[in-house]
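Let us practice reading a record.
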Amino acid sequence: MKKDIHPNYHNVTVTCTTCGNSFVTGTTKDEIKVDTCANCHPFYTGKQKFAKEAGRIDKFNKRYGIKNEEDED
C-alpha cells in the first residue's frame, strides 16, 4: 500500500439526538450524530404499530364475511 494516501481511522462517539444514547465506533469522521438508534427506534424496541395493516385485514374480513376467532367467543 502507498503511504500517506489513506484517511486517518480512529474511534469516535456516536450520539443519538432523540434519546441521548451514545456508543463508540471506528470511522474516518470526527463526529457522528444520528436521529434514531437501535435503542429508541420502534422496530428494534418492539413498539412498532401495524395499524394500517390491521385496518386492511378488518376491511378484507368485512368484505368477504369472515368472522374473527375473537368474535366467535
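A brief commentary: The chain has a mean pLDDT of 80.
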